[in-house]
């Protein structure tokens, strides 16, 4: 199941955005603050449409901590939960998802707190009658799933925090069939669990072959009891992967995440982060091949010219020509009123623009 | 000036000339501001591949300018033909642009033809020498009366002109990159009457 089309209304810095004709591998490029990461986040929420906890996860990935209830406002346009936040996705099999995120407002909150404030003369009085009426206490995910026969079903999940207790209600009778994974540019996620699953399914050879392209001395990869990952580089002892540097771990994480998300969606923010330029060719080749093998749709952000250049070079290799139709590059531009416009490049126009030195970032 | 202005040219020589001419007409600051938006297209047949660049400007309420060669009937072009072809392209791709065709937006010809007309006339003797060279080559025919030697193309004529002067290593490197030192009046006359149509065109949008 592939995402074909995405519509976003009032999410973070995006007032509105409509984007379609996604392929297997989709690049989002654009200047700083063109909402590339926000776009990935909406796809992530859509993939896990019944799970409102994802909202806290994406905030945490941005190092936005949830300390008080007002922090639920982070996802709303202009940090105002009165803005209608709607994300809609259409998939290639006729399936569609519509996620309407609304705030949960505690109606009693107003009276109780006004009373407390009035009793305490030393506290500052707030004379705005509306100041307590819109206190957000949580988030509700109202979502509609439409199957290929246009049959609609509506569900509701929520995460609500009151009196220091957080209650999470996941929609009953809804079974998620789509898996999404998010690789942030900020956080080094633990890869040992993913590697363990790969080793159990006796498929670690695929990883070793990829790593060999970076360092030909790598013969095998294994997992210690403590979760430490070891590499066999042909010497007497196995070597902890940490010794080989961040680049190898980053590549390993990317590949393992794709393998661990079969038939799903993987979102990769700033794919080149932590990788040396010489590894970018290996990265692209592996990412393209593995995503095809595991039928994973990728959404990737970058603002790095070298990253685009190496993707072009990889797709010009004889054995990679067949993958050219898998690629779409979207340049995101922020217009007036924070409307985001995507400018679409297929491989031919992407390749030609790079050759001519035309700025598509 | 519009909020965004993009100038689509054919190649790096055109890019260099247009930058130099804008600098001459409007000053360095304006030229430097516009420079990143002078786009080398590779020719009129390639517009389809970069159509998003045109749309982006239109969405930003900006202006697209195309400055291409008219070419001539002998190379499947000519002012009227090329203009029509580009107008059709505009309609087919649903884009918008203002058009100027070298050399002067009315005659057949190209960028090189324009350059031939804007050299510093103190050095016009170089072209006389070059014409003699061409005439000499033409005189050599095979048994069927065909030219034995390739006749120099007009690009060679322009490079022969600029190559006739003594330059520093740095200047030579610039020339190799397509910058034929247009802002040096010792070699080029950017005030000449031949550029009046291009001047009027640019003044309308910059």
Tell me what the structure shows.
The complex is a heterodimer of chains A (361) and B (206). With 361 residues, chain A is of the alpha/beta class. Chain A has a single domain, classed as Rossmann fold (3-Layer(aba) Sandwich). Helix content of chain A is 28%, strand content 29%. Chain A has nine helices and 16 strands. Helices cover 45% and strands 10% of the residues of chain B. Chain B is built from nine helices and four strands, in the order βααβαβαβααααα. In chain B, strands 2-1-3-4 form a four-stranded parallel beta sheet, with helices on both faces. The longest helix of chain B is centred in the N-terminal third of the chain and has 15 residues, at 12-26. At the A-B interface, β16 and α9 of A face α3 of B.
Fill in the keyword field for this structure.
heterodimer, A: 361 residues, alpha/beta, Rossmann fold, 13-stranded mixed beta sheet, three-stranded antiparallel beta sheet, B: 206 residues, 2 domains, globular
What is the chain-wise order of helices and strands of chain B? Answer: EHHEHEHEHHHHH
Strand order of the largest sheet of chain A: 8-7-6-5-4-1-2-16-15-3-14-13-9
Number of strands of chain A: 16
Q: Which architecture name of chain A does CATH use?
A: 3-Layer(aba) Sandwich
Task: Work out the count of structural domains of chain A.
Answer: 1
Summing up helix and strand content along with how strands pair, one would put the structural category of chain B as: alpha/beta
Q: Provide the β-strand percentage band of chain B.
A: 5-15%
> What is the tally of helical segments of chain B?
9
Q: Gap between N and C termini of chain A, in Å?
A: 29 Å
Which sequence of strands runs across the widest sheet of chain B? 2-1-3-4
Q: In sequence order, what are the helices and strands of chain A, one letter per element?
A: EEEHHEEHEEEEHHEEEHEHEHEEH
Main beta-sheet annotation of chain B: 4 strands, parallel
Bulk shape of chain A: globular
Ranges of chain A where pLDDT stays below 50 over 5 or more residues in a row are 109-130
Low-confidence stretches of chain B: none
Number of helical elements of chain A: 9
